[in-house]
Amino acid sequence: MSDRRAKIEAMLADDPSDTFLRYSLAMEQRSEGLHDEAIAGFTSLTKDQPPYVPAFFMAAQLLVDLDQVNEARGFLRDGIEQARAQNDTHAAGEMSEYLAMLGREGE
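That's the Tetratricopeptide repeat protein sequence above. Prediction below.
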């Protein structure tokens, strides 16, 4: 475990609902190759009220890296919808471009 991850986990122990710390932990897990844990962390953030929009994009990127493109498309579609609902046109645009780059299912 990295020192960075240990620090994040210690801070999360004090405030387990801190969205940014939860996102930071998932990002650290991703960088350490703990893919299942990272995806679980991102997924949890997408289920918050309101959902944490950057988590949709990061989950999708990680899934593409793992050759799980169809699952990535689902995160992107949901993320675009949530970004629009939260008036985050920048995030919606980025995810739309990434989704278009991935092409259609079955291609």
